[in-house]
Amino acid sequence: MFMEDTVHESLACIFPHVEPHDPSILNLLHKSQRNIECDTSMEEITYINDGSIIINESKTKTLFPDSIVHCRYQLLSMNPRVDRLAYGSWSNNFTNDAVLPKEAEFLLVVCYCKEKVKAVSKAYYALVPDLEEANAMKSTLLRKRKAERSPKETLSVIMVGLDGVSRNQFIRSMNKTYPLLMNNFSTFDMTMYTQTGKNTFPNYLSLFGGMTEESLQNWWNYSSHSDTLDLVWDEFNKAGYRTLYAEDWPDVGGFHYLKKGFLVKPTNFFSRPISLALDKDPGRIKSGHNCVGGKPEISFHLDYVSRFLDTFPYKPIYATVFFTRLTHADMANVAIFDDYLHEVYNVWLSKGHLDRTLLITFSDHGPRYGAIRETFNGMVESRTPLALFTFPRWFLEKYPEVARNLRTNTARLTSHADTYATLLDLLYFRSSLPLQKSPFKRGLSLLNEIPADRTCMDVPIPLEFCLCGQKSLSSMDTKSSLSRLLVKNVLNMINLKTDRNLCEELALESILFVVQVDLQGSAQQETREKNIYKVRLRTSPGLAVFEATVFTNGGPPAILPDDWNVEVAKNIDRLNLYNEQAYCSRDPKQRPYCYCKSLKTNYVNSTQQPTSSP
Q1: pLDDT computed for residue 89 by the predictor
Q2: H helices within 497-588, ranges in order?
Q3: What is the distance between the alpha carbons of residues 272 and 246, in angstroms, rounded to a whole number?
Q4: Are 26 and 375 in contact (CB under 8 A)?
Q5: Closest by alpha carbon to 95, among 133, 130, 53, 124?
Q6: Does residue 301 contact residue 319 with C-beta atoms inside 8 Å?
Q7: Per the record, GO CC terms (predicted)?
Q8: Which stretch of DSSP H or E encloses residue 507?
Q9: Rounded CA gap, 514 and 122, in Å?
Q10: What is the DSSP-derived secondary structure letter of residue 564?
Q11: Angle at CA 18, nearest 5°, toward 16 and 19?
Q12: CA pair distance 411, 166, nearest whole angstrom
């Protein structure tokens, strides 16, 4: 176990201490199911072996003893000009086996009994072709990396991500996986790891690119393709690593939700074609999109990563798999992952895949809604995603100063940009010619000691996400003049975010709460001329619920002066679904705040379960 209790040394940032199993939180959480039940009525009767699809004869004799079964397959890929699924032509029918093209990656296999019109079996496959031409190029790039930069070590990287899960929720829910990582593996738990943006995309930019949205605004926008972004897997590609990126919910992928996505696949192996095909399959609706045939979708995507590792067991690889569908709307569903991650991590260990690999288990941000958000503990959890770094034990023993730095950094202020910097540092570990970081890139490598005097401004972490020095929340009278002033400024800011030609001007329906953030230590001294408040309000039309962070220049005085400065943080969270309320806008930055004017005559209230946008 490579995590120690937070040491209260002379740190510029002291995190609030929040127990994962605090009774005040447990009383507000519902229990999630821990298993996924899948429909097994249409059993798979084919399998892949040595580049061929083979019909399982023993299964067909058992299931269809009086019938002749024939199958056909269809290759799945991306349209080379647009971010859209392309279906290949159906193959000829076969009754025993069929040899696949050597470049086949994703396919659908459908089988029939000759006397039946409807399919009796359907199966999706995600393959990892091992092509000689690609291998030759990767070998050349690896030799170039070694000749030009002479890194001391070559470690692979596997990143397993869960959407919207806090560190504490992971600890509460993963009763097998968390103890396995902390007690049996060499894992460092970053206890002061902080999100850098409101939703998935800005956190992705920091995690995979070491950059902020502000750094892109002069040359990139949401109508641009993501191919032009300098992302970490580009560096691994150039260094000769085989690379993979997989997501389970393609419509809300970090680089695709209301964006153009990638024109060219960003990694050597990219799961988007099979994910799109699965989402378009009407048969999956019966199982809530959580199954692929008789198999849980979690297993399907983890099996894809496992096949990738099995295909290149002795070659350096970079792989990221990110799960959104189950945890996006309900963080309690992270418990479902426990058995699957516990099993696959043990399998990867037993096969030697982790012998020369950094395994990172992470999330993009914490939960952004729910009953716990009204508590101080919940506010902290919403800002603290998960970051577990698991290294090979031999690596830590060979480089004890790295192990010492990582242990120290578990109790230092860190963020996604530091993960990005760590990956680049590891790619050219102690190289004779280290990779030069762009001045627009952020982050410090966790292989080095993070400074004790680091602040949110240094990272940078926007103030509305900064937890340094925060101790508790003090409720305020929602009818007070101060509360009304804060809410008025938040409402004005919300309305400034929308186009009056498209969206209604929102009015205040009710003030749900106003709280003051109580500070301690150096944070209290630094902000003695500034107060921090959290404001939650409901607006009309549409009954949207918003939460904002507001800063004032002191007080509160008995009588508020006219020139009292009120600053609303730019990231304002929408805590419930906007559904079709924002259908008239394609601007992802506007949609959470927009109630389309054309809906005013057909007043539609959004009273569904709160959720965050991707």
Answers
A1: 97
A2: 521-526
A3: 7
A4: no
A5: 53
A6: no
A7: extracellular space
A8: strand 507-519
A9: 54
A10: -
A11: 155
A12: 17
Q: Could you tell me if 195 and 380 are in contact, meaning their C-beta atoms sit under 8 angstroms apart?
A: no
- Is residue 66 classed exposed, middle or buried when 0-12, 13-18 and 19+ CB atoms within 10 A define those classes? exposed
Return phi, psi of residue 74, to 5°. Answer: -140, 125
Return the amino acid letter for 89: S
Query: What is the structure's pLDDT at 610?
Result: 36
Query: What is the predicted pLDDT for the residue at 24?
Result: 80
- Starting at the earlier edge strand, list the strands of the sheet with 387-391: 186-189, 387-391, 357-363, 156-162, 317-323, 242-247, 269-270
DSSP E strand stretches across 177-266 = 186-189, 193-194, 242-247
Token output for 61: 């004799």
Beta-bridged to residue 430, according to DSSP, are: none
Whether omega before 282 lies within 30 degrees of 0, making that bond cis, reads no
* Contacting residues for 110 by C-beta, under 8 A, at least 6 apart: 71, 72, 73, 74, 119, 121, 122
Maximal CA-CA distance, the chain? 89
Element (H, E) at 234: helix 232-238
Helices (H), 283-390: 297-311, 325-328, 337-350, 376-383
Enumerate domains of the chain plus CATH numbers: 23-30+149-465 (3.40.720.10), 46-125 (no CATH), 470-607 (3.10.450.10)
User: What does the pLDDT average to over 289-313?
Assistant: 95
Helical ranges in 15-155 per DSSP H: 23-26, 57-63, 132-149
Residues contacting residue 99 through CB under 8 Å, at least 6 positions apart: 51, 52
* CA distance linking residue 596 with residue 504, whole number of Å: 6
| Least confidently predicted of 226-230, 469-473, 476-480 | 469-473
pLDDT tier for residue 548 given thresholds of 50, 70 and 90: very high
Question: Residues 129, 135, 138, CA angle at the centre, nearest 5°?
Answer: 125
What percent of the chain lies above the pLDDT cut of 90?
Answer: 70
pTM (whole model) above 0.90: yes
What is the distance between the alpha carbons of residues 600 and 196, in angstroms, rounded to a whole number? 36
Six-digit token string for 146: 């070694």
**DSSP annotation of 501:** T
Cα–Cα distance, 322 to 177 (Å, whole number): 17
232, 209 contact by CB (below 8 A): yes
Closest CA relative to residue 7, chosen from 408, 450, 384: 408
Burial of 570 (0-12, 13-18, 19+ CB in 10 A): middle
Record the tokens describing residue 8, joined without a space.
Answer: 């209260």
- Give the amino acid at 347: V
Q: What is the pLDDT of residues 490-502, one digit of tens each?
A: 999 999 999 999 9
Q: For tokens 């953030």, what's the residue? A: 517
Q: Which residue has the tokens 């969270």?
A: 573
Paired strand residues for 124: 108
Residue 612: per-residue pLDDT: 43
Q: Which residues contact 294 (CB under 8 A, 6 or more apart)?
A: 38, 39, 40, 42, 43, 44
End-to-end CA distance of the chain: 33
**In this structure, is the dihedral angle defined by the CA atoms of residues 556, 560, 565 and 566, taken in order, positive or negative?**
positive
pLDDT by residue (tens digit) across 174-231? 999 999 999 999 999 999 999 999 899 999 999 999 999 999 988 998 888 899 999 9
